[in-house]
Amino acid sequence: MRSLFLKIFLSYWLAQALFVVLAILVTITLRQRGEYSSWEARQNEVLSEVVQTYENGGQADVRRYLEEVRDSLHVRAYFFDEHGQEVKAGSGKAGNICIRNPWPGIFQTIWGDRERFVRQYYEKYNKNPKSKDWRDWPYFAGDGAVHAADGYFRILGRVDDVINVAGHRLGTKELESVCLTVTEIAEAAVVPVADEVKGRVPEVYVSLKPGASKAGVEKKITDAIETQIGKIARPRKVHVVPDMPKTRSGKIMRRVLSAISNHMDTGDVTTLANPDVVEQIRVMVQGDKPVVKKDVPEDLKRFGEEQ
């Protein structure tokens, strides 16, 4: 028995040592070929130029330097719509961020679940599953954004947290940020609600700062959203709640709020820091009548889930 244990122990550490040696050899080989050193050298050179410019009292064109770093990395972002068509810069349309070419820092797989790795990050925009050409496998970052004509990216948020209102993709984080510009608001959460005409519409939940008055808050939030984002983002309803349902670490449970707005099962809320507030909010939104659960589209069921 002791001999078997000793063999297993030695085999484990031998495997670890071989892995380290192999990693060192690969790194040395890459450096000798210049594939790593050229990247590092250019990044260090650019950073040095920026620092020296500021130290000498000058104003560095940081954007130009960032573009040089981007070019040295050879990482190219592209935007695709839901049908796989490329969204051009300056079109004003939102798309999904993809990277068509690999880079040294890209991760290789998901431990123990390679199928999920391919399905989640590469399958969406691949047109030929049998292809061995990396150009046919764009990396899907999972974020929505607008690509401006000047090259800037306006990140809208996670694709899962984007509300498609009559073809317009609205980031929930963007809407929540606008809500927080209203002085009375302490916290805000935006969730999608099914709509027969527009497909989905946003619904807003806010909690007030201590001592703030509720009077006129709903109108202030609606006006702020229409002014800063547009009338297409007008919320169906603004709910002023006593508190947000949160985890013990303070994270707002948007999944629970979405379930309430769409008349779904809120699931297990006993582990929340304030589980009692869930029923208070449900009564405010749905009324005092018995809960009537509805069958809703899959995207609403998945909204707010951990990825």
Summarize the structure in words.
This protein is α+β, with helices and mostly antiparallel strands. It folds into two domains: 77 residues, Luciferase, domain 3; 145 residues, ANL, C-terminal domain (GMP Synthetase, Chain A, domain 3), CATH 3.30.300.30. The chain is built from nine helices and nine strands. It has a four-stranded antiparallel β-sheet. Strands 7-8-9 form a three-stranded mixed β-sheet, sandwiched between helices. Helix 6 links the parallel strand 8 and strand 9. Helix 7 runs parallel beside helix 8. The longest helix has 32 residues.
Q: How would you name the CATH homologous superfamily of the largest domain? A: ANL, C-terminal domain
Rg is 25 Å
Q: Helicity, in percent? A: 25-40%
The CATH topology of the largest domain turns out to be GMP Synthetase, Chain A, domain 3
Shape estimate:
globular
Q: Name the structural class.
A: alpha+beta
CATH architecture annotation name of the largest domain:
2-Layer Sandwich
Just give the CATH class of the largest domain. Answer: Alpha Beta
Q: How do the SSEs run, as a string of H and E?
A: HHHEEHEEEEHEEHEHHH
Distance between the termini: 44 Å
| Average pLDDT metric | 79
Number of beta-strand segments: 9
Enumerate how many helices there are, as a single number: 9
